[in-house]
Design a protein that fits this description.
mainly alpha; 7% strand; extended; Manganese catalase family protein
């Protein structure tokens, strides 16, 4: 519990986040580009849904679970709404890159489709994102192996079950 909530407001509603930081709109992104803003909204709703599912998994209180279940459902609705706006704009392929109004001939396109490998001693893993046709249908993904990288590879481990991560992050890879 945040003591400030008791001492300063007598448990009434306060315009602060869960850590007591005052609401100042610094987490709201408005670029003036509708496609960029909708993608930002999708990411924000996805992050909110991850947080709500974590809270849901942490509590045993049935009333809180019911409330969080509602919030999780609303985050689903909002993600779908923002994706529908992207669809009305012609879909992701039509809106990317953002802004799509910037002339491509003014872009250094030789750098637009390669993945830069900064791994110490491993080649770039193969995946849809690192080889083959780019999502926009214009470029081809390639890998650029970067030599002489300093430092060591971090070992972040797998996500815990119930953490709100994707299944692929939770599953332990088969041993070699």
């Amino acid at each position: 519990m945040n003591p400030l909530h008791v001492l300063s407001s007598g448990l009434s509603a306060m315009p602060v986040n869960a850590n007591g930081v005052p609401f100042d709109m610094s987490h709201i992104y408005a670029s003036g580009n509708i496609a960029a803003d909708m993608l930002s909204n999708i990411a924000a709703e996805a992050t909110g849904r991850v947080l709500a599912t974590r809270l849901y998994n942490m509590t045993q209180d049935s009333g809180m679970k019911e409330f969080l279940s509602f919030l999780i459902a609303r985050d689903t609705m909002h993600q779908q709404q923002w994706m529908a706006v992207i669809e009305e704009l012609g879909g992701l392929k039509a809106t990317l890159p953002i802004p799509n109004s910037f002339p491509r001939e003014n872009e250094a396109l030789e750098h637009a489709y390669y993945c830069l490998n900064t791994s110490l001693d491993k080649p770039l893993p193969k995946g849809r994102w690192s080889e083959g046709q780019a999502y926009d249908g214009v470029g081809q993904f390639t890998a650029f192996e970067q030599p002489d990288i300093l430092g060591q590879e971090p070992d972040l481990g797998n996500a815990r079950s119930g953490s709100g991560a994707q299944i692929e992050q939770i599953q332990v890879p088969p041993s070699v």
